[in-house]
Amino acid sequence: MSQITAPAQVDTFPRLGWVDELLSPALRAALAALPPDEGRIAGYHKGWCEADGTPTLSTAGGGKSVRPALTLLSAMAVGGSAESAVPGAVAVELVHDFTLLHDDVIDGDDLRRHRPAAWSVFGTPAAVLTGDALLVAAMRVLTDTQQQRMAVAVKELVDALLELVEGQSRDVAYEKAPEVSVAQYLAMAEGKTGSLMGCAAALGGVLAGADEVRVRGLREFGRRLGVAFQCADDVLGIWGHTSRSGKPVGGDLAARKKSLPVVTALESDGPATRRLRTLYDSPDALGEQDVALARELVEEAGGREAAEREAERQLSAALRALSRVRPAAEAHRQLREIAWAVARREA
Amino acid sequence: MSQITAPAQVDTFPRLGWVDELLSPALRAALAALPPDEGRIAGYHKGWCEADGTPTLSTAGGGKSVRPALTLLSAMAVGGSAESAVPGAVAVELVHDFTLLHDDVIDGDDLRRHRPAAWSVFGTPAAVLTGDALLVAAMRVLTDTQQQRMAVAVKELVDALLELVEGQSRDVAYEKAPEVSVAQYLAMAEGKTGSLMGCAAALGGVLAGADEVRVRGLREFGRRLGVAFQCADDVLGIWGHTSRSGKPVGGDLAARKKSLPVVTALESDGPATRRLRTLYDSPDALGEQDVALARELVEEAGGREAAEREAERQLSAALRALSRVRPAAEAHRQLREIAWAVARREA
């Protein structure tokens, strides 16, 4: 990452208390407006309450509000107020939670944010309906904003949703496909993760009244950052720890997920690639030893290094796009800090 | 139904070939824009193709486009063209299909439009994702319309979606509740069925440029009609035939559904009500004989008559609201014809 200089502090996600202070009341109001059962399930999903509705003791959990932070800071970056962008911040966070709820149903993942996924606690029907409710609530938050910008904001969100669905569809299809190329993988990641982060940043610009060129720059910034995040997340899915990811160690390998390191390793050539292919092609379940072996083979075939390099390339592209927006200095500094943390999957 | 005169022909749903001619290309274009797998599943759900994508031989199936017909005729009723309202017609039909796909997952219903429900053919994950895709496609169709009216149209749809989710939530909760009142039932039916039919009619007005008062009248017309439809549907769910409803005979009773005839019968007093309560309270599955007995008891306790009367009352209210819109004569005639057929559950 020679051409970009890391900020002094990149090992932890920057503390953005003011983001939560702005976001939290509006987000809680949106959840409180849901039907009671779906509101409780959404609250559990966010880590605000236990399954029976009792408030949780810890104030942590519920993710780090990366997307809302992008929205609020993007508004400030183009000279607007963070307050003006709160509806956008709430909308992207609600959409994010909608995708998590439905994705866990679709993928059968039973761990989310260090707790049993909502569907495994409340059942699939309840998780589906709660996801629907969150998506509709997101649309509602935007349609309640000032009418003139509302139309553009809604269009921005709907475009992102279309890409999200397309990305999720590819993801599901690729799990069954015999071969997936790196190019296909990146297109999927752009749809599944890039589109919503791009939308988060763009909405900040839209709601602050920025012109189309700057909105496009912000969208590109968020979109590249999203892909960087997904690449880093894939590395974590193989070499990370449950304590950080909230997911089982090596789970991606045990499930034979075609994540970026694996796809790259399989596209390579050599003894490690051939052994990895045999392991992935075998119809048997992968035991603990197989997973450990697969992990070594992916690394040997260059999958880890390639994924880390891709994350860095995407981060560079994101930061270049951001610079072209000519953002206000303080917002620029904070957005760069977030970008570094996100691209290292600290968020 | 003394105060309203039935049109000459009410026993079959009016043939509205022109509605399908206007709707079909736009609806097919919307489905063609979906990711391939979700497009195929949506096509199967609509009866356009088999599970493997082969076009079906029959051109029937896929429902009778009641909601799109309401949208197009409502536009004409306020002096606009049917063409101007096509995006609204497509949007409500896509939302309707979204609700059917997710509702079948949520309720575990495995028969839809005389065929196995999509989730039972393609799996729950695929049905969930296809539903999501249809909802997003509906939003997209509206955001692609002329910007000035777009904002109002989107708001109309989002408001309906909120009510839909609320109605579905109540429906799920009531299935587990020990007692449900007739008032609770009607509020649920208004959310689950009335909101989208109300939206269908209102969108026709909005897209034709009608003023708020007439849009409100059209919304009320569609909303009452939706509740009438639900009441009639409940009667059919107990005394109807599979050939007409596409659902198993007596299925609502076997599943102990708290449909309007049952709710009314249980709210009554007398020997039939008491025997029905015992039957519904028993933890055992209801066999064929129990279902036949329950059917008789609901009728004896006045549940059937009350539901039929409620359908008529709602239809009267719908037609009164429509008259207040002072609709154009020909559109008025056709809307009345549809209303009669819908309220008798011919659609």
From TrEMBL, chains A, B:
This is Polyprenyl synthetase family protein. InterPro entries: Isoprenoid_synthase_dom_sf, Polyprenyl_synt, Polyprenyl_synt_CS. It holds the Pfam family polyprenyl_synt. PROSITE patterns: POLYPRENYL_SYNTHASE_1 (PS00723). It comes from Streptomyces griseoaurantiacus. Belongs to the FPP/GGPP synthase family. Keywords: Magnesium, Metal-binding, Transferase. It comes from the Bacteria.
